[in-house]
Known about the structure:
The chain has 426 residues and is α/β, with parallel strands linked by helices.
Amino acid sequence: MAVSSLRVRPEDWTPIGVKSLEANALKVVRAGINQSVIAGPGAGKTELLAQRAAFLLQTEAAPTPRRILAISFKRDAASNLAARVRKRCHSSHASRFDSMTFDAFAKGLLDRFGQALPEFWRPRPGYEITTYYERDYRNFLDLIAGSPPGDIGTKASLRAIGAKSFERKHLLGAPLPVAAWPKPDVAQWAMARFWHYSLHEGKKSVLTFPMIGRLVELLLRINPMVRDALRLTYSHLFMDEFQDTTQVQYDLVHTIFCGTDTVVTAVGDNKQQIMRWALAMDDPFSEFDADFGGLRTTLFNNYRSSPDLVRIQHVLAQALDSGAMEPISQTEGTIDGESCVILDFPSPKTEARHLAKTISAAIADKKLLPRDFVVLVRQKAGDYADVLRPAFEAEGLSLRNEAGTAGQIMLQELMTEDLSKHLGRR
């Protein structure tokens, strides 16, 4: 479908490439204020943002030559949104839409302007990007950091910080001070040592992406010309997968755009926070609404799941939030009768026996084969297999754990390869 490059009056604009949008989605698309949008599974978050981009660009609500910045947590989400905008907009409009991850956004700014950082915080050109794990922080606190000065603390107090909390609460827990810490406590001394060790003591500076985010937030806080240039460039900001936003990422966005004329739209699902282990904030939506004056809007349609699946999802959502609203399925069920069910068992062994008997009965009654059944588990398939195997064997069924290995090769990877590749191997 050809998309016009001509300007459209806001009152004449209609959604592009879709039959319609639900009422709340259309309000989000047309809004001129900061918004936080709660969009559950199948709500069409990518389509919502693409339609909003189309509206802003085609009506000049995002005035030329200003641009729209979309920041996502994952690379595939950023690329999918960019591709959707190209489908919904003329190329002359889509060229003013920048979609990238938080990490790419921060790294680009550090690479361009990092030499403007104070000397203590300035990485050397050609820095390396790494990932630090708990063992690395433990090794640093126990061995590399050394002993703090006597008036600051002891080796024991340094170790008492704990490797688990060092990154989240201390190293990355708050914006960086301009001049390090003039009168540090033991945790601040350890942070200064770690930053100096990473930035200045090796052959190259070595940084994680969250450390880059902290450096860039400081860079923009103390360099108003760079900060103002970003504010002038972007009239609108989209934040996708907002439920997984970390404090580092939020602080960076806050420093750049809070209190400006840039209109911010944060979209995500507060029932799908799966990244808290990776520094995600506990409740980014409430903090955003308070800081940016965001208007909270909820989308209700589900374009992906059948009515039965929506019903099941709502049961799970209510377990997290008793006030959760039930989504409205926009698809038709294709299975006669009950297509899914939630069963609660008093013990893993009871669950295993029920599952084995159910599969055994289905094989006998419906003339199915064991290969017609799969048991999916969230993680640690080997632990589940140990519980399930005796119950399955009692029903004459064998159980294969495809998360297991044959030598050093995972079975589930081996099963997806073309058998012909292995024929004739000696």
